[in-house]
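Sorry to interrupt, but I need a hand with the structure work. Can you supply me with one protein entry, sequence and fold together? No commentary is needed, just the two lines. Leave the record below and I will have a look.
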Amino acid sequence: MSWVRNPLAAPNFPIPTHCGSTLPGASQVSPHASSLRIYAGTSGWAYPTWKPEFYPAGTPAKRFLEFYATQLTSVEVNYTFRTLPTAKMLDSWLSATPANFRFSFKAPQRITHFKRLRESEDDVAQFIAALEPVRQAGKLGLLLFQLPPNFKADAERLSGFLAMPDLRTKDTPPIAFEFRHESWFTDEIYAILREHNAVLCIAESDDLLTPEVHTAANYTCYRLRRDGGYSTLELDAFAKRFAALAEERDVYVYFKHEDEPTGALNATAFLALAQAGHR
């Protein structure tokens, strides 16, 4: 087998010129990735407009995820915000990704936006049950509860929500909260998250920056959403910071998804930098 460099991929990703069913132009994520507790990607993958800068020009849509998983180690699935996936859909996603890949899922809007965490026990149970095949496959990352921007802090409601039985079993996946109103950024809220080992999602956008407070003992989460993406120097700084955190916890990092491939290319470059520093 001979090896070439993929001009569309981040540095240090060799690709085989002949490797069974590997997609043309697909570089394999470094073998060091499995020992680095960083799961990096974007919030979605089904973007034809990412060709040819991210997806090679000839890649069919049905193989986007297969290619994506050769470049990145995780994806945040926004699809579940509106609709729960079918078992057939999950099976196809699981089949397209390697063993160390992780899927994180955004909680349904019925829970976060319509009911605003009230009386949502049945909805949470249904959400978790729908993702059981992913958990069984060992590929389940975070459950992200993203609250609407006009939802102000309510410590009692948050505490009651996190106390529901379905979120307190030994099989409950890691839980992350993205608060989009600054009233949530208080010691009282952080204490509630710590009590339940739930993570404060550290989100960065042009409108709001979440304080960097790590509330869970064994994992953390970043959503990097700044318009225009990040420079190489900024990505290198992220790589150093997050690799240090990954010495003691799982670190989930998701870049912004949009029609342009900026987020995907940022994520690929970031992961390459993190892996290079880990060797």
